# Entry
Amino acid sequence: MNLLSDPVGVSHYLIVGAILFTTGIVCMVVKRNALGVLMGIELVLNGANVNFVAFGSPVLRGEQASILGLDGQLMALFVILLAAAEAAVALAITLNFYNNHATVDVDRADDLKG
Amino acid sequence: MVRSGSCEAAASVRLPTGVACETQQVMGDKNMRGPAFLESLEAAVPGGVVGTNLEAIDPWVEVAPAAVADVCRWLHDSPETGFDSLQCITAVDWFEPDPKKAAKAGWDPHLELVYHLWSTRARVSLVLKTKLPRWKDDQPGVPPEVASVAGIWRTADWHEREVYDLSGVVFVGHPDLRRILCPEDWEGFPLRKDYEMPLDYHGIRGR
Amino acid sequence: MSSSVAQLLPVLAAAEGGLNWHGFFFLLFALLACCLAVAVVLADNVVRMAFYLVLSLGATAGLFFLAGAEFVGAMQLMIYVGGTLVLLIFGVMLTAQEPFVSIKTPVRDKVLAGLVGGALLAVLIQAALSGPAWSGSAAEGGGGVALAAGQPSATPLGMALVGIRVDGDVASGEKSPEDGQVRSGYLLPFEIVSVHLLVVLVGAAYLARSKRRKSSGGQGADLSTGGMR
Amino acid sequence: MAEYLIQTVGLPGWLTWSLLAVLSAVLILNLMAGGALVFIWAERKVSARIQDRLGPTRTGGSFGWLQSLADGIKLLAKEDLMPEGADGMLFRVAPYVSFCASFAAFIGLPFAFDMVGLRLNVGVFYVVAVLGLEVFGVILAGYASASKWSLFGAMREAAQVVSYEVPLGMCIVVPVMLAGTMDLVTIAEKQAGWFTNWYLFHDPFTFVVFWVYVTCAVASVNRAPFDLAEAESELVAGFHTEYSGLRWSFFFMAEYSSMFLVSGLAAVLFLGGWNGPVPIATLLGLSDGTGESTGAIVRLLGLANLLGKATLGVLIMMWIRWTLPRLRIDQVMTTCLKYCTPIAAVMFAGAMTWLWVFPGGVLNLDDGSRRPGEIREGWLEGPGGRSTAVSDAPVDDAPALAEIAEVSK
Amino acid sequence: MSQVIDDDPRIIEFDVRTDEMLVNMGPQHPSTHGVLRLVLRTDGEIVSEIEPHIGYLHRCAEKIGENISARQFIPYTDRMDYLAGMNMNLGWSLAVEKLMRLQVTEKARHLRVLISEMGRIASHLVGMGAYGLDLGTFSPFLYAFREREKILDLFEEACGARLTYSYITVGGLTADLPPGWLERCEAFLEQFEPIIREYHALLTTNAIFVKRTAGIGVLSPDMAINYGCSGPVLRGSGVDQDMRRDGEPIYTAMYDGYAFEVAVMKDGHYPRDHAYPAVPADAVLGDCWHRFFVRMLEVVQSMDLVRQAIDQYSACKGPLGEPVKVAEKIPAGDVYLETECPKGQMGFYLIGNGSAIPWRVRARSSSFSNLSVLAELCHGCLIADVPAIVGSLDIVMGEIDR
# Structure
């Protein structure tokens, strides 16, 4: 699977998507800073985007029709748009949290504890 | 007494050939000047006025240290005098360092506060003086105290701080009496006649 | 991230010189994206994390260009990196006072998370490589990437958003398999998203609005000493 | 060029291409560095003229043109200080981030018919997107210098640049709509011929949009009345207070090259890119007027045209800088939100109705472009659809594209 | 942004918890005029409190005054407000002459008016240029200094110095005007006339300048009087007071035979304001714009005075008169005199005790009181407004710290 020689296929994109996806999840799990978690989410969404584009790209598939056609790219567009909206709301919540508790540390957010 | 600034109703436009109004004699009869003013001042603040000098170039009224605040309050508030602006507060250290001259100086060492007031409406100035002991009940180093007029004229706030900083007079009731020109931790009062420059200040050689 | 070679591909493919440029750039961007993503996880300082994330998303934008999805790549650069991450960095700046800049997570959690992540990664990669259809061109070993279209254009994408699907199948050119007539476009989802965006932004603004609270009084260093000593 | 290298010189394929890639990168880099040097010198001279003094005269012969070289050497020699307590890595990287952002944007800018880094179909969109990234360099610099003042400066500038992208985007959508495509090369081609074909004079709405674009461009590049970031009177040179020497010069070059870029973009979008006011090339018969087959001379002429317009734009920015006082941060924001954006929106609607009423454009003498509506049919009826449609003249995208750009703002 | 709402300062509305910051506009800050340190308590962009720290330029000239003779003190006076040295010298000379009951010759009187009014123009030019610099535009500063250079050349011909003149001294002036000086001064005024319209176009009517200054730092008349402000700061708030007309007889006698109106806004009109740009809509009486505009009008007023002084000076025949000897004895007694300097009313208090050395010298500075009002003006303004307000007060640190 020497990349320099033979052409790039969809599976290579899928690998990259997988790596991004998993680092995103690990980041969400590991980080104690609320914004760190947010960044994890961004990575996860990007992983998904790479897969969408991989399936929808005319270039990678060689002769056969790409499985998703343009839908892949459109899905990626909508993912990007919604990620922006999601980030806005998440940030608003974080700032509120910061205002009330003077801390951004996720572990300390235990008001609902019994 | 009160020296009148310029003619009473000075038109805003000075006439090219305006006749210089004859300078109001000190003892002029306007309500603002002359004995009438003095009587009304003494009536308002009993025991306030201690002495006057009407012949000097700038006639002044001497006021007892305790009555400074009341006199100033009356001068500021009463409608016909209405001194709404304090021009300057000065502290003069009457002390002759070397004994020979001190003998024939003719006055005993004391500290004198001079207030210059100005009325923007009547365009008239007034000089108030008050005598203070050089040091509070004569222990050298402890500055004398007098009531602060910062409450009456806001400009007195900084002027009193400068007098405290350079001549060493504590103004009781001043909102924020700190040194204004010299550094916060400077010792001594530079404008005193017997002031010695410190040897060094934070390592900087003084003398 | 930006010097996409989508245009040059046909010429490159022809150049027999052995070096597959598309692969080279893909490798470059992929490595960049992945290493920076890992760096985001490893970094402690939240500002550095944000910075690595910006670079990694830039690299993925490069990947999109490579995959021929130019419009999505530009969109990613503008909306995602230029908009969302600037928002994120604003959030970081507002909250990154000294105590919270780098919050350490105990090592035990990190190891545990690493293990779980590694397992998930193995599964995914195995799935990615297994599918015969996906590794497509590798199987055929066809003459590299036969890019049919000359200059990729964003027009079909635009048209699709307006509701007319003109793409059909790029290479073979036959209509979409099932019903033969043109599939419906994305007009409805497109409008929904725009309304959704509006509602979300209004909500976020409402959430983060200024709240009336008793000010904590004039505490803090007394002005006269200037607090600057 | 590549074929020549491969056949005659016999270089292996991949080496030639990497050489060519490096060459084009260096070309653009020189444009930026050289441009920055020229503009530094020009700024000194222009400000001198405005302030009734001479400006540099002694360095290098009569006009002091070596002055910027002397500055460059001085900056190189200066020691690159870094405040302690600053975040080392971010501090070092910040200037390069903002430099690369404006550098990358040059790839999309067409200098003559075929002289463009990369003919992207989403050219304008790409350039605006990359311009938006310059803000990261500023924020990082402000944060990394660990001083309260530079943080203030960085926050102000970031808020300003991000908020000015909205009206900037809206102003750019109008010429895109008129040309029907985001591809800068096609937009410039459509404005060939006499200057009346320029989009500036296409209709009154676009004329107003041009001036709104100029204000937003000046603001998004942080120049003249909007240069809050380095408002000397308040924040002592804003975010790049702590920088000195080479790093500072990168910020400086980034600022000048993005100034050149923004005025270049204005030239392409509104002032007919490489088409001169009078189509000399066509008159002399050098090119057949459609801009298709153009010889080297015509391209050179085109290059001169665009460079002239862009430098004119930069000089105007300098002129504004030395005459107008600075606006306060909240006034800057209100001009953006209360004035630029609504005006741009109204003008956009106006331009759209104008296009609907006069499809060929009133002044457009040779009505080359097809109406947007026809494009849609062109796509539909062709069985093979795509392939046939693509082969003929570059495809005019439907106004739908404008909506995407609209929504995505 | 946080705003103080429904006038209970305790309830402050703020959106993101930004702890209040103490920001230090240090002594070496480019915008403050000289070494003035401002400590601002800011919450985000809003300045809630400001504390000026002065004393960095304190040389204690008053102590020196107690060790040298009255005429030897002149060089110290023109180093107090170094932008208007002539007016300072005039103030001190008149105070000493008042104590010594001295009367200068007619020719000296007219020459003093001429020179002090030219000094006022030079000082206002610097004030205007530096104010443009505070608001971010660099060019007016250079235009102002180009004109000021011409005045300084004239001063250099008259007294040899360009900044610290010591030209007006006790008992008259150190030297008479060189021949041809009056023609050159006339020529300067001629070419200066149209340039003033340039300044108006460049600053006063400039939309951005108006936006940055109108309605900013509004000083009410009674607060101005209470804080002892004077000069353009006082007249900018509408108080009709000008020492050249309302001052002590010895000072107003100097301006006898001169026609001039005080540049103050009375019932909505400035004197002869038909020739100058109208007051912008959102300019409130007492704001930065009005203070700036009063200075610009005073330049024109001073030009009229200089023209009248040139006629009167060339008309009168008498000798110039000799200043007093350096070690002249000064009579016992104390005297206080305030003169109208460009920055405001500069007062000198002098106590003589019969010897040549005064017993006590006291200089009351106008900028000292003008600056004390800064804390009042800057409540709730933006950071960017602080230099605008400080610039409009036109303070000089040499005069404040003495």
User: Anything to note?
Assistant: Chain D has two domains: 23-77, 83-364. Confidence is low (pLDDT under 50) at residues 363-373, 382-409 of chain D. Residues 83-364 of chain D form one domain.
